[in-house]
Design goal:
Two copies of one chain form a homodimer. Chain A is α+β, with helices and mostly antiparallel strands and 212 residues long. In chain A, 19% of the residues lie in helices and 39% in strands. In chain A, the strands form four sheets. A seven-stranded antiparallel beta sheet of chain A has the order 4-3-7-10-11-6-5. In chain A, strands 2-12-13 form a three-stranded antiparallel beta sheet, with no helix packed on it. In chain A, strands 8-9 form a two-stranded antiparallel sheet. The longest helix of chain A is centred in the first third of the chain and has 11 residues. In chain A, 54% of the residues are buried. Chains A and B meet through strand 1, helix 1, helix 2, strand 2 and strand 5 of A and strand 1, helix 1, helix 2, strand 2 and strand 5 of B. Strand 11 of chain A pairs antiparallel with strand 1 of chain B.
Chain lengths: 212, 212
């Protein structure tokens, strides 16, 4: 195996280190976050850091650097208090990646890409092509002092999911939905149908749960 | 599409809501976190919430509920200051899920499952079967006031990766590594080889980056 110590990691070439460290945490969610500016321009950007925080209340978080490309997203969330998180279909991966380009603030990525806005007034739009669409109300902006990134926390206000994706017990079949996974900074993956296991107990082998 | 409003979500049956809300954030990383207690017992537990926070310094975060099944992990990290994050191979998904059972504190999941410890003294062990093994030093414990979960932040101290997984530019091929993705509370997925795209620019279609 290749080993890297703390000093070695710090002295790696910048881009190599970014690729390496962004890869090792594992597969990431692939979501499009839509926001609306004060001027009424809709912004859309791909994020790989959306993370589940809790189901009751229903909370999602995501990580952002306020000074980087996602600044429009950050500004719009703080100003308007609302945003939508929309699952990125793997078949639209190139379009999804394109939303990470530094478009001018008066340009809507809905115009610059093939993603279609689905009106949700007075809130920011959903992405019409997404099989899972979530409206959130901004709750907290926690600054991570170690590197000045932010954990943005939102509460789910409403939710739209293709009917045939929701199982009897509430499980949503993301593989059937065609949702992408992301790895590293720039890789988009299709994911195969998964294996579900029963609640784990110490003296019992996990049993498969049939679904779908 | 099925629509759920805020009140509907709040009034869903508890387990249905947990499955639903845990699914919609997208695919998640699949990692085994190893810790060591004061008494010298090694603990191992699967986590789906490890998230990249930054590359320089190299920081990873994960979400935990201190009062739930993962309490041993939390106590050990706070007490010892160190932990390892190890990529879960998809072919060991049943064993990975088994680590989420409530084993007694004096039982090591390394004894109760097929995962083998790889010594890393004086730090907690790595998981021998993992293609990506990360040693972290605990940095911060941020309480998320909205639901009393915690974001645990650690800095990478050392890193071991199978040589043939690291590309020329530092990208790590998680699909080739056989790393699992998780969805919902209990689904484990194999992920197909991905498509990488060049840095996105407004007036340019993303180009594929060849790798592997």
């Amino acid at each position: 195996m290749n080993s890297f110590g703390q000093d070695e990691i710090a002295s790696l070439e910048k881009r190599f280190r970014a690729n390496l460290i962004n890869s090792i945490s594992g597969f990431k969610s692939a979501n499009l976050i839509a926001t609306r500016s004060k001027e009424g321009v809709d912004n859309l950007a791909v994020f790989s850091s959306v993370v589940h925080l809790g189901a009751h209340p229903p909370l999602l978080g995501f990580i952002m650097r306020p000074t980087s490309v996602e600044r429009h997203t950050y500004d719009n969330i703080i100003e308007s208090g609302f945003y939508t998180i929309n699952s990125l279909p793997a078949k639209m991966k190139a379009e999804g990646h394109k939303t990470s380009a530094k478009f001018a603030k008066n340009v809507s990525e809905f115009d610059a890409t093939e993603f279609k806005p689905e009106a949700n007034d007075p809130y920011p739009p959903f992405v019409a092509q997404s099989p899972i669409k979530i409206l959130l109300e901004f709750k907290s902006d926690m600054c991570i002092k170690e590197n000045d990134t932010h954990l943005i926390i939102g509460e789910i206000i409403s939710l739209k999911i293709d009917e045939d994706l929701i199982g009897e017990d509430g499980f949503v079949d993301l593989a059937k939905a065609g949702s992408a996974a992301i790895s590293g900074l720039d890789a988009y993956h299709q994911v195969l149908s998964g294996t579900r296991f029963s609640y784990a107990r110490p003296d019992e082998e996990p049993k498969e749960i049939k679904y779908g």
